[in-house]
Amino acid sequence: MTAHFDVPAWGYKPYELTSQQAAALRATGLVHVEVGPVPGQYALRGLSSVGVAAGPDWELRVSSHLDVHEVLFLLAYARDSFGWRTTVASFAKSETLLAAVAWGFAAASEDALRAGPLRGYRRLDEATPVLRGRLRIGEQLARGGMATPVLVTRDEYDLDVPENRLLLAAALLLTRTPLVAPVVRARLRRIVALLDGVSVVSPRTLRSPPITRLNRHYAPGIALAELIVRGMSVTTRAGTVRSVTFAFDLARVFEDFLEVALGAALRRRGASLDRQPKGRALDVERTLGLEPDFVVRRAGDPEPIAILDAKFKSLDASLGGDAYQMLSYLLEFGPRCGTLVCATGEHSDRRIRAVDKRIAVRPLALDRPPAEVLRAVDRLAEETVRLVDADT
After folding, report:
1. What is the C-alpha to C-alpha distance for residues 110 and 91, in angstroms, rounded to an integer?
2. Which residues in the chain come in under a pLDDT of 70?
């Protein structure tokens, strides 16, 4: 019998666990496991990630206040700000992030492979008993002349191209997890069969190829494959799957989304967005390092005009340590305006008495439809530039 555990991100729930389950849940990295007041009682505390994990006799789900499709919109837009609608349209209504991505990946891959897998030329350096291709003269002479095998370079036209390698790696990862529905797993096995002859390489070494006229029909499948490879980890022991985790750090997802969406909105207004600039400190001894999420600059002007910090949470009225953190950024980088960009919360402005600085809180209401979220981002860009102009 499988034990199910559901925990909200940044929240907690009490559960009765065995010591083996407690150790396995801790190892997922999705939750903190805290010992309860009596033996066998534990509290599972969600961290900043959202996703699912499963072992032989347990399943863990960590969710946020956003539904699955709202999280997938942020992920898809950060990956492809022009084609995100096609990617999001592939997703089925599902209870978990993994189920939606697996369904969408199967559909997008089937569309990409409908006319047959993509083929392309790739360079091969090999030693053969016969001369095929271009002779690698320098290396051949270094071996003492023309003795066989002959060292040659040739171009091979086949299926073993980066696009197919990425699709195959994602499909194989998904087929190994018990969290994927049987009907989707059967579709994934057909995709694996269609890619017979493609090299199986470590998913961590794969990089998404640039989208061109030749592989544009692969674009949705590549985008989803990249999400799968990036978000999934499989641990094994003695040749069997020990546990599977599929998760994304919501704070990182939010920052990636803002970098793309807000960066584009600011560029339309003659400004740029610099993410996490390095090498700054608050003190003379340079022991108090500072690294804001974003610094806004005018085109051609090295001096910052605003600081933005992303907070994937609802900020309460006190702002807590977030206000002091923003003030330290403003003191070091110089601009008058700093904005805490949060997922949900109340719109507010604070003027700091001791120094001529302003801290604003701007929620984007990420639980609204994508078009409304993008309009909110555009308003944030307009306000950021306009407030600076007004202060000047």
Report:
1. 14
2. 90, 92-93, 124-148, 150-152, 154-156, 236-241, 387-392
User: What pTM value is reported for the model?
Assistant: 0.82
d(CA 228, CA 242): 18
**387/308 same-domain check:** yes
Chain position carrying tokens 């066998």: 40
**32 and 131 both lie in a single domain:** no
Which helix (H) or strand (E) segment is 12 a member of? strand 12-16
Q: What is the pLDDT of residue 37?
A: 85
SS3 state of residue 22: helix
Output phi, psi for 288, to 5 deg: -105, 85
What pLDDT shows up at residue 294?
97
In a domain, 281, yes or no: yes
Q: What is the DSSP letter of 35?
A: E
Domain boundary pick from 110, 143, 158: 158
- For residue 141, what pLDDT is reported? 60
Residues 32 and 142 in one domain: no
Q: Which domain holds residue 124?
A: 120-158
pLDDT of residue 388: 63
| Confidence (pLDDT) at 86 | 75
Under 8 Å CB-to-CB from 373, ≥6 apart: which residues? 73, 364, 365, 366
In this prediction, residue 173 carries a pLDDT of 92
* Residue 50 counted as domain residue: yes
Sign (positive/negative) of CA torsion 18, 21, 26, 27? positive
Report d(CA 381, CA 228) in Å as an integer: 31
Scored b (16 or more CB within 10 A) or e, 334-372 reads ebbbbbbbbbbbeeeebebeeeebbbbbbbbebeeebee
